[in-house]
Amino acid sequence: MTVTxxxxxxxxxxxxxxxxxxxxxxxxxxxxxxxxxxxxxSAGDGxxxxxxxxxxxxxxxxxxxxxxxxxxxxxxxxGRFDIAALHEYLGVLTTPVYCTKIASxxxxxxxxxxxxxxxxxxxxxxxxxxxxxxxxxxxDEITPAQVQYAASDVLYLHQLKDALDVMLERxxxxxxxxxxxSFLPHRALLDIAGWPEEDIFAHSL
Length: 205
What we know:
By secondary structure, this protein is α/β, with parallel strands linked by helices. It has helices at about 60-70, 80-90, 100-105, 115-125, 145-155, 155-170, 175-195; strands at about 5, 20-25, 35-40, 50, 75, 95-100. It has a single domain, classed as 2-Layer Sandwich (Nucleotidyltransferase, domain 5). The protein has 7 helices and 6 strands. The protein starts with a strand and ends in a 12-residue tail after the last helix.
């Protein structure tokens, strides 16, 4: 496994093929308040690329081009948050997308546990170390432990997608999942616009 850290953007000639796994690290869980610090990417080849973004320095033209490329599927786990953070700081609405958390909720209705750690353990037999999850991602230099943690969040998403796709097909929910993925960027926009918790589809008087 090779993990490469880039400052401010990915190289112009870096290709991730037809599907790229993406995750983000931020200073907290409120995109409007807590700034975007890292964007992690992987082509599913066992390697990862990490883009470190400094406060106020969000030009990243090559990364933005990738996020907006309709020919490249972006694979997330809990993409709702990451898509919102990317839109808030990079100004790009990421499409098309796939979310392993949504796929798990649709396919694995026998459990209430859909975290990345759980999915990697249950479907791939891989144990993830989450000790670095709440560290300071806004530091000028991230530690080797942070680098390894950040990389682990994208290294297995392609494999999880493959496993979950089989289950979605088996349960006849693949089309429903696709519809959910198509709506996901708009769900992120609703979060940003002020409807993070309210279910606007629910009946009310």
